[in-house]
């Protein structure tokens, strides 16, 4: 097995051309060929035995198959058939399938005649990687029907799967749900209705123009699973949906006692305790937005103080961002005691 090669600024996925469990109306069938893209799947571990993770076969328009097999000793196998042409792509075992979540990424470029396959244990070891030659392009309707579950066998351990024409998956990043009300110069506005040029009220800089609104559609499981912050904790007026990486500002005497600072930022995922902050799995796909104010800035959304996302990753955050392990002394306390008013 090989380790992933270094890449210079790979093109990130901008959208999913197919995503499992999406409840949109069925897209119109099209046999358009996708010559370059990524197929991604996340699994709940452990998986001790061999298994068919995903399998779809059709005889419409000629025999076609797309299947993913797992054998802990042999490895991961992607079988792709179009008519009389069959390709078998193998990431050789043995595979370290311990408890946790694993992600399979199968990247293909039929034009350049190359493919790669990678297995990541999220939050764990160095990924396993292999490369090969001569993949087949994928039909768009096959990908859409596969993700819609039509004539598809799916193993219970499969959390989600999808396909994109990007070269790498989008990074996890701060985002908020579409219905989250953001304080603007014109009053609270649902995040999904914000547009570039709207003036967002910030704690430190006053009103700032919104430079960019990035709409995201992500699986609500595994690596991208969102967090539900429950009202009335952490200053929230009502429950709000955020990404696990969304920094939330906390303050008060407990913060001062533990960290010697008036205010700190904590990723929402570190606040999950099953009561005040929950891992949100009630929806299969989450639609959200990231707000770019040109720099990391603090704004209020439904009463909760959050930090904006932005392309400028060189500017330091306005408050110290705690590591997840640093948040542990605060988790057992009521979220109401960790926030002061900012009116």
Question: What can you see in these coordinates?
Answer:
- The chain is mainly beta.
- Helix content is 6%, strand content 42%.
- The protein contains 3 helices and 27 strands.
- It has helices at 140-147, 253-259, 328-331; strands at 16-19, 33-34, 36-45, 51-58, 64-71, 75-82, 85-92, 100-109, 114-121, 128-133, 138-139, 152-154, 158-164, 176-177, 181-184, 187-190, 199-202, 206-209, 212-219, 227-229, 240-242, 247-251, 263-267, 277-279, 285-292, 298-301, 304-307.
- The strands form 9 sheets. A 6-stranded antiparallel β-sheet has the order 1-13-3-8-9-10. It has a 5-stranded antiparallel β-sheet with strand order 7-6-5-4-12, with helices on one face.
- The radius of gyration is 22 Å and the shape is elongated.
- The protein starts with 15 loop residues before the first strand and ends in a 12-residue tail after the last helix.
- 36% of the residues are buried.
- The model is unreliable at 1-14 (pLDDT under 50).
Helical region count?
A: 3
Number of strands: 27
Overall pLDDT metric: 86
Largest sheet descriptor: 6 strands, antiparallel
Rg over CA atoms: 22 Å
Give the end-to-end Cα distance, rounded to a whole number of Å.
Answer: 57 Å
Structural category: mainly beta
Topology:
Layout: E1 16-19, E2 33-34, E3 36-45, E4 51-58, E5 64-71, E6 75-82, E7 85-92, E8 100-109, E9 114-121, E10 128-133, E11 138-139, H1 140-147, E12 152-154, E13 158-164, E14 176-177, E15 181-184, E16 187-190, E17 199-202, E18 206-209, E19 212-219, E20 227-229, E21 240-242, E22 247-251, H2 253-259, E23 263-267, E24 277-279, E25 285-292, E26 298-301, E27 304-307, H3 328-331
């Amino acid at each position: 097995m090989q380790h992933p090669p270094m890449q210079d600024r790979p093109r990130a996925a901008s959208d999913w051309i197919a995503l499992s469990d999406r409840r949109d109306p069925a897209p119109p069938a099209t046999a358009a060929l996708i010559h370059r893209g990524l197929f991604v799947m996340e699994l709940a571990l452990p998986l001790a035995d061999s298994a068919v993770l995903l399998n779809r076969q059709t005889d419409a328009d000629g025999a076609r198959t797309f299947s993913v097999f797992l054998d802990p000793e042999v490895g991961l196998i992607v079988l792709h058939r179009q008519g009389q042409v069959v390709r078998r792509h193998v990431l050789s075992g043995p595979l370290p399938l311990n408890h946790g979540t694993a992600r399979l990424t199968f990247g293909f470029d039929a034009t350049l005649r190359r493919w790669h396959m990678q297995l990541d244990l999220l939050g764990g070891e160095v990924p396993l990687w292999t490369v090969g030659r001569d993949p087949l392009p994928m039909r768009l309707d096959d990908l859409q029907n596969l993700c819609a579950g039509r004539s598809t066998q799916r193993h219970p351990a499969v959390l989600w799967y999808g396909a994109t024409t990007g070269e790498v998956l989008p990074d996890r990043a701060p985002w908020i749900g579409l219905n989250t009300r953001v304080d603007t110069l014109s009053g609270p506005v649902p995040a999904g209705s914000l547009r570039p040029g709207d003036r967002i009220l910030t704690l430190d800089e006053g009103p700032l123009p919104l430079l960019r609104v990035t709409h995201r559609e992500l699986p609500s499981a595994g690596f991208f699973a969102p967090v539900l912050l429950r009202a009335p904790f952490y200053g929230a007026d009502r429950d709000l949906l955020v990404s696990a990486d969304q920094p939330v500002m906390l303050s008060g005497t407990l913060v001062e006692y533990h960290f010697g600072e008036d205010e700190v930022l904590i990723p929402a995922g570190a606040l999950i305790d099953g009561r005040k902050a929950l891992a949100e799995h009630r929806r299969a796909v989450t639609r959200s937005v990231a707000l770019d104010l040109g720099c990391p800035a603090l704004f209020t959304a439904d009463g909760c103080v959050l930090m904006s996302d932005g392309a400028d990753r060189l500017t330091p955050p306005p408050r110290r961002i705690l590591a997840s392990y640093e948040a542990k002394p605060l988790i057992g306390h009521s979220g109401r005691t960790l926030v002061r008013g900012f009116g």
